[in-house]
Design a protein that fits this description.
The protein is mainly alpha-helical. It contains 29 helices and eight strands. It has four domains: 37-232, Fumarate Reductase Cytochrome B subunit (Up-down Bundle), CATH 1.20.950; 258-384, Fumarate Reductase Iron-sulfur Protein, Chain B, domain 2; 388-501, no CATH class; 539-666, Rossmann fold (3-Layer(aba) Sandwich). It has helices spanning 3-29, 40-52, 61-87, 101-131, 140-166, 177-183, 191-215, 223-232, 263-271, 277-280, 283-286, 293-306, 308-319, 323-332, 345-350, 356-360, 367-381, 387-399, 422-425, 435-440, 442-458, 474-478, 482-498, 509-518, 532-541, 571-578, 615-625, 636-648, 660-666, and strands at 430-433, 462-463, 503-506, 528-531, 553-557, 583-586, 630-633, 656-659. It is elongated. The structure holds iron/sulfur cluster (2 copies).
Length: 669
């Protein structure tokens, strides 16, 4: 077409783009190191399934397919754009293999996808302007980008259409079926008019592409470039397993400034599409608290961009190993505080770590570590924790339980019940890890008694640690006291090793998560961890627990976030209930992966909930609407929250909350 013009255009566009990307790179480098290149096979699988396969987006029908169509169209159009740029230098340029029949197949696909993308763009504009889903902001940027994408497709189709008027025998005619159809519009035009159209569409397409590339890094559509790397570099450990903090050689703990984050958090900021899926079922957002997982990421990104010159300098210093100079620069930089200004302190404490956001984000943004890192700063650097939490932390420190009950009373719940202790037995097939709720909360002690009675009847070889058990560390770690957690976990592990424990069973999903997913990093190896729902199901299926026909009753099962969403155990508790003849199980609308939190995770069990409406009230209203007489749980925190909600909302005549073990015990033959 015009090699000189194309050279100048390409040079300018690519030079500008390279400058912007270099800045974005140095901002990433202003963060702390984070290893994200291990397990290439698993990462590639994520990339194929979640990145290219758009798995998480396709969970949502219309919007998911719309996005997938635009994404696929982009991939196909990228090949076309390279070809068109090549034709700026050589008129008949083709990419390797695309000059012959394969090229015609590609051209057919290209036209098909261009049409699909145009339809998807129209649908997206309609959805934003007319339907207006509550989770989406109607932003000018989104409309501009959608129009831009539509224009890219339209200029390509119209350019080919004009070309077919000039070259009626072009080999691509027919394969480019949409352009062939459109070429009819040029039938009566002069050659000069068709040529003007062709030239205009060609240069408009190339200019739009290159301008698009330069606009992307400045807004939420940067995700077009960063989403696939973000998916590849996502954390591979279980979603509720927090990362181990190294204390040696560090003067600051947690995240009090952007530069304390790992570089991955900056990639999260670049990649957030502001789609709002994370907000949809965030219990704190839904109940009117100041935490919105989307805003956490967006607010941090806004500060990062506002401080980009500073972060670029810090990134360059850190990359050169000049950490002291970087630290001095960071200390001297004035900025609104990350906690208290960028993110409200109440927002940081509001998170229940339920995992909805993490499980729903299409680009695998990891909100929980982001929030917990800020709690670590508040707890360990500033000793600034909500007042209600202070007693729990004192209890965890002095008595290894958040109720701050004497650790000597840890096995008082057993009373006269026959419960073997490890210290007497020496070893057992299963260690029953009771947990603090089972040990010190009288309602939950009833559940543990039911579990032990069932185990006794079924002849399970088990034992408890009694006074030798300490808190699993779940609340300690989630409220940011990593230092204390790193004492609690090894203490329990040492006791496990003393009794050569090979299998642990627990009725608490929080203990389950800590022992199964977090203890291995502290030395617990080759230990199988099961939840009581799994072992109870096995005992019923093996005929070791015989059931009688139960009284006809309608029950609904509430998924614990730490059992379901974080650890994938959805079926076992439901199947336990299904074994009881006469029980009719009904599902709440928000169930399984979409189960709504009870409000107690993330240490929230030990904090006041005085902002917005109560999360447990929201959930119990949903349970009551099913018409069930009983809401069943498999988690001590959920049991407490739902029981409280029943009382507080005057539903005691209508509904009761019980653990699945209690239901099973009541229906034993
Ligand atoms: S964090 Fe993820 S789910 Fe939330 S708005 Fe951003 S991209 Fe969407
Ligand atoms: S973990 Fe749950 S409570 Fe916390 S931000 Fe995510 S969705 Fe909200």
């Amino acid at each position: 077409m015009n090699p000189a013009a194309m050279t100048i255009l390409l040079f300018l566009a690519l030079a500008m783009f390279a400058g912007t990307i270099a800045d974005r790179y140095w901002i990433l480098r202003s963060g702390e190191p984070d290893k994200r290149l291990d397990h290439p096979g698993r990462r590639l699988k994520n990339l194929l399934i979640i990145g290219f396969g758009q798995k998480r987006l396709l969970q949502e029908k219309a919007a998911g397919w719309m996005h997938a169509a635009i994404f696929a169209g982009f991939l196909v159009a990228a090949i076309r754009t390279v070809t068109l740029i090549g034709r700026g230098f050589t008129a008949d340029f083709h990419l390797p293999l695309l000059g012959g029949p394969l090229g015609l197949i590609y051209i057919f696909l290209k036209d098909t996808f261009a049409v699909i993308v145009l339809l998807a763009v129209l649908f997206a504009i309609y959805r934003r302007v007319v339907v207006r889903p509550s989770r989406l902001h109607l932003s000018g940027e989104a409309l501009l980008i959608l129009t831009w994408i539509g224009s890219l497709m339209a200029t390509d189709l119209l350019g080919d259409a004009a070309m077919f008027r000039l070259e009626p025998d072009a080999s691509e005619r027919g394969a480019a079926w949409m352009s062939t159809l459109l070429s009819g519009a040029f039938a009566g035009t002069s050659e000069q008019t068709a040529r003007t159209w062709f030239n205009t569409m060609y240069w408009a397409h190339v200019s739009l592409v290159l301008a698009f590339l330069n606009v992307l890094p400045f807004g939420k559509h940067f995700h077009v470039l960063t989403a696939l790397p973000a998916v590849y570099l996502a954390r591979l450990t279980p979603t509720a397993a927090l990362e181990k903090m190294e204390f040696e050689g560090r003067e600051t703990f947690g995240v009090g400034k952007l530069e304390d984050f790992s570089w991955r958090r900056f990639l999260d900021m670049y990649t957030c599409t502001e789609c709002g899926r994370c907000n949809d079922m965030c219990p704190t957002h839904v109940t009117g608290k100041p935490l919105s997982p989307r805003e956490i990421i967006v607010n941090e990104r806004d500060q990062a961009y506002a401080m980009s010159d500073h972060l670029v300098k810090v990134g360059k210093l850190k990359a050169q190993g000049r950490d002291q100079e970087a630290a001095a620069l960071i200390a001297a930089q004035e900025r609104p505080p990350l906690i208290g200004s960028v993110n409200e302190e109440d927002a940081i404490w509001a998170c229940t770590t339920c995992g909805w956001c993490v499980s729903s984000c299409p680009v695998m943004i990891d909100h929980i570590p982001n929030i917990i890192d800020q709690r670590r700063h508040l707890t360990m650097m500033e000793a600034k924790v909500p007042s209600a939490l202070q007693n729990a932390l004192k209890g965890l420190e002095n008595n290894s339980n958040p109720w701050n009950a004497s650790s000597a009373a840890r096995e008082d719940w057993i009373g006269d019940l026959e419960v073997p202790r490890m210290r007497d037995k020496g070893s057992a097939e299963y260690l029953l890890f009771v947990g603090c709720a089972g040990s010190f909360d009288s309602r939950n002690s009833e559940v543990l008694k039911a579990v032990c009675t069932l185990f006794n009847k079924a002849g399970v070889d088990y034992a408890v640690l009694g006074k030798e058990e300490g808190c699993c560390g779940d609340p300690t770690r989630r409220v940011g006291n990593e230092y204390l957690f790193q004492m609690q976990a090894p203490a329990n592990i040492t006791t496990f090793q003393k009794y050569q424990v090979k299998k642990v069973v627990t009725a608490c999903p929080h203990c389950f998560n800590a022992i199964a997913n977090e203890y291995p990093e502290f030395g617990l190896q080759d230990v199988e961890v099961v939840h009581h729902s799994e072992i109870l199901l096995e005992l019923v299926e093996d005929g070791k627990l015989q059931l009688k026909p139960g009284a006809a009753a309608k029950v609904t099962y509430h998924d614990s976030c730490y059992l379901g969403r974080h650890n994938g155990i959805y079926d076992a508790p439901r199947e336990v209930l299904a074994k009881v003849q006469g029980l009719e199980q009904v599902e709440m609308p928000r169930n399984r992966r979409e189960g709504f939190c009870c409000g107690a995770g993330g240490g929230r069990m030990f904090m006041e909930e005085d902002l917005g409406t109560r999360i447990n009230h929201n959930r119990i209203a949903e349970a009551a609407e099913t018409g069930a007489e009983e809401v069943c749980t498999a988690c001590p925190f959920c049991l407490t929250m739902l029981s409280d909600a029943i009382k507080e909302t005057d539903r005691s005549d209508q509904l009761r909350a019980r653990d699945i073990a209690e239901v099973l015990l009541e229906n034993l033959a």
